[in-house]
Amino acid sequence: MISSAFDRFIGIDWSGAKDPRRGLQMAQCFRGTEAPQIVLNEKPRNWRRTEILDWLAEVHNSGKRVLAGFDFAFAYPYCDEDAYFPGSDQTPKIAESLWALIDAICQDAEDFYGGPFYLRPDAPFADYLLFINYKGKHYSNRMRFTDTHCLEKGGNPTSVFKCVGPESVGSGSIAGMWMLHHITTHLHKEFQIWPFDNADNGRSVMVEIYPASFFRLAGQDVRNWGDRETVNRALEFFGSQPLPTDQKMESKDDIDAIVSAAALRHLAHNPDTWQPAALSDCARDFEGWIFGVE
Fold first, then answer.
1. How many domains, in total, are found in the chain?
2. Around Cβ 281, how many Cβ atoms within 10 Å?
3. For the chain, how far is it from start to end, CA to CA, in angstroms?
4. Are residues 193 and 156 in the same domain?
5. Nearest of 179, 197, 134 to residue 161 by alpha carbon
6. What is the residue range of 36's domain?
7. What is the pLDDT of residue 3?
8. Per residue in 88-102, pLDDT tens?
9. Which of 11, 49, 206, 215 suits 55 as a labelling partner, its CA being 20 to 30 A distant?
C-alpha cells in the first residue's frame, strides 16, 4: 500500500483546450488543517500544462513528497469489451501503450494539446469518438468501471470518448494521457501513477480526481460552488479550516482545485482509499480509478 506520508496535497483543475490558461487552476495545502490556497504562476500569466508538470517536479526534487490530483480520465474504457478500441488491429494492449499511442499521434502539437487525436473525422481513432463535426461509427457511451461505480453513487460522469460539449472530458483526458506518457518515460523515478503503479519507494503520486464527487461525499451540491458557506462546509468535512474571509471565489475552477486539495489531504490517510473494495484487477491494470470513489 502507498504510504500516506505526503508533504503537499495538490488539486489541479485540468483543461484540454488548445490554450488552457484561462481554465487551468492549481491549489495546494500542507499537513495540518490550514485551508488550501491557489498556487499562482511566478510568470505574469496563468499556468500552461507543461508548467504545472515542471512545478510539480521541482517541488518533488526539493525533497517534498507530493500527492497531486488531476481532473481527467487516466485511460479509456477497457474492461467492458476487453479492448480500448474494439475491432481495431491497432488497439493498445496496456495503459502505457495507450498513452504512448496518444503521444505518437499528437507529437507535433505543443503543451500536451491533444487536438490531433480528435479534431478531424479522419484521425486514426475518430471512429470511436464524438466531436462537434462528426460521430464515429463505433462511438458509444462506454464507461470505465470507476465511472459506472461513481454513477451508481449518484455522480454524473461522462464517457471519455466524448470530445465536445460543456460536460466533455475527452479532450482534457487526451491531453492528460499524453502527459502520463511523458511521466512514464521521463519522470518515473520521481512520480508514480496510481493505481497502475504499485511499488511505494517514496515517489510522489499522481491520482485521478472528480471534484464533483468530493462535494457529494461532503454532502454538498457542487452547483453551489459560488456560495462560501457551501464551500466551507465541504472543507470542514475534509478536516480543513474555512476559506480566509478575504479569499476571492472567482471561478468554479478555483473552487474545484481548493476542495480537491483538502479532500486529497483527508482521504490519503485512509487505507481504504488506496485499496477500494470495488477496484478490480482489470480496472487497476487497464482503466485506473477515481481517487476517493469506494
1. 2
2. 8
3. 16
4. no
5. 134
6. 8-74+174-287
7. 67
8. 999 999 999 999 999
9. 215
